[in-house]
Every structure is written in C-alpha cells, then in structure tokens.
Design goal:
The strands form 3 sheets. Strands 5-2-1-6-7-8-9 form a 7-stranded mixed β-sheet. Strands 10, 11, 12, 13, 14 and 15 form a 6-stranded antiparallel β-sheet that branches. With 312 residues, it is an alpha/beta fold. The protein has helices at residues 10-21, 47-54, 68-75, 93-96, 119-125, 161-184, 217-226, 293-299, and strands at residues 2-7, 25-30, 35-37, 42-44, 59-60, 81-85, 103-107, 130-137, 146-154, 233-237, 240-250, 261-265, 268-272, 277-284, 291-292. Helix content is 26%, strand content 27%. It folds into 2 domains: 2-184, Formyl transferase, N-terminal domain (Rossmann fold, 3-Layer(aba) Sandwich); 206-299, Formyl transferase, C-terminal domain (Methionyl-tRNA Fmet Formyltransferase, Chain A, domain 2, Roll). It contains 8 helices and 15 strands. α5 crosses α6. The chain is elongated, with a radius of gyration of 22 Å.
Length: 312
Amino acid sequence: MKVIFMGTPDFSVGTLEALIEAGHEVVLAVTQPDKPKGRGGKMQYPPVKEVALEHDIPVFQPKKIRDPQSIEELRKYEADVMVVIAFGQILPKEILKMTPYGCINVHASLLPKYRGAAPIQWAVINGERVSGVTTMQMDEGLDTGDMIMKTEVVLDEKETGGSLHDKLALEGAKLCVHTLKVLEEKTAVWEKQEDSPTEYARMLDKKLGDIDWTKDAASIERLIRGLNPWPSAYTKWNSKIMKIWEADVLEGQTDQMPGTIVKVEKDGFCVQTGTGLIKVLSLQIPGKKRMDAGAFLRGYPMEEGTVLSSGM
C-alpha cells in the first residue's frame, strides 16, 4: 500500500518502522513542527521525523493540518491509506475521507475504554489488570471510530507508565501491519463502539503528580507507577520537591496524620496515608539523580514524625 504516516512521539516510531519492514511504501511522514529543547533552545526533531529522514521519506510538518494548503499537500501523494498514531492534531473530514481506505488509527487502549490523550498512564493509575491496543477507522469524534482489531496486554504487578508504553508500542506496530493486511485482503470486520465505561483519559500535567497523602496507600502507589517516568509523582520534604519513583504498599495503620513518616529503615521510609502505609524505595531531590531510598537516607538523615506535604 501507499501510506501517509502521521505521528510524532516515540510511541509512533515502532509502527512506522514496522510498515517499512512489511514492504509498504510510506510516501510521506506527517509530524508536528520541530521544538526548542533545553537551556540553549536548540531545535529538536520529533522522533518520527528522525526515523523518516533515515529512510529517505519526505517529511511534512504543518502547524495546522486543517488549513487548506495542508490538505492539498496531502492530496498530492495519492496514498491508499493514512496511518495515524499519536499525531497530536485533530483531522478534518476532508483528510479522513481523502484516501480509499481512509485513516487507520492505532490507539493504546482496549476501546471504548480510555479514549483520550493518555490511555497508557491512566490504565496504570486506575489499577487495570489488562490493557492493550486497538486499531480503528477514524471518524470525526475523539477516538470513537469503528474498531477493526485488538491485542490485549496483561499488566505486571509493578507496571509503570513507561514500561506499559514500550509494550503497547511494540504490540501496536504488529497490529497495524496485520490490520493493513486484512484491509487489502477485504477480510476486515468493523465493530461499532459503545459508550466508554471509563472517563476520558485526559492529558497529563505536572499538577496530577502532587501526592495527596489522605488517599489510600494502593491508590498512591499506582499514581507513582503510572506517572513514571513523566510527569512523576512528588511531595514536599524539607522545603524541597521530592520525586518518588518507586514504593511498596504495606499493611497497618497508625494514629499519625497522613503524610507523616512513621518509620525509617535502612532501605527506605514508611509514610502514613489515609488508609495503609507507603514504603518509599526510590526517589529524587532537586540537583540530584534518582537514587535508592537507602542511599538517600545515608546522606540525608530523616526523622520519624517528619510530615510530607503538598508540593504545590
């Protein structure tokens, strides 16, 4: 097939490479504009652009994909299908209907669950035991198009947003290739979506990581895993923002207020939550690299009774 590929972040890269390896002719890669990064403000290519250039694929980076000139640019390539995965802009009807096979989206959830921008992280935060990837025929709604194929992925007990991202990116790449195959063979079966049983998987922001110690220990531990590696869960200790990267849930309850450090051990420290205890195992403070809690405690003695508070 002649494919226009639309995607931007790392999650999209594996699918682009899989399409190339499967023998599809990727005639154009459409991605977001370059952005400045770091203190020097040096312009950085989106990951999809980097891979496309390595394979001598033309790159198009429109500020607004719905502008008439952008639409006409896409039309020039006379593609059979558009594959869209984490592109970052809403596509107008003119693009959705432009090619014979329309726009095929690879979405990182088992639709209709977790429609929205951050399905991977919310699956971890909400304690899902199974997630997956869905390919769908895009329509003008937000992740509401008819479903074509699905792949399930079981979450590990200590699954993080980062580890699930990598698993689903790999499965999504394979599923996309398989989906294009059944489309070509005219054996694809479409299934309409019902109403979503979950809330819209809204975009992540840094405020979400501010730990509310009045919540139960299990919910806090899932938040820590879901926001690892970005934007991270955090709290305030000694007037510093402390990122918490790894923790365990412990049984037990004390009469201390939530957020109080109730026990300090060699390999970590225990914090009272609204229900149950959290043992912090890995953390980071400003100006330092991520470290085991044991190493942190050897350099920064912590006393029982210290209260961790909101980071905002």
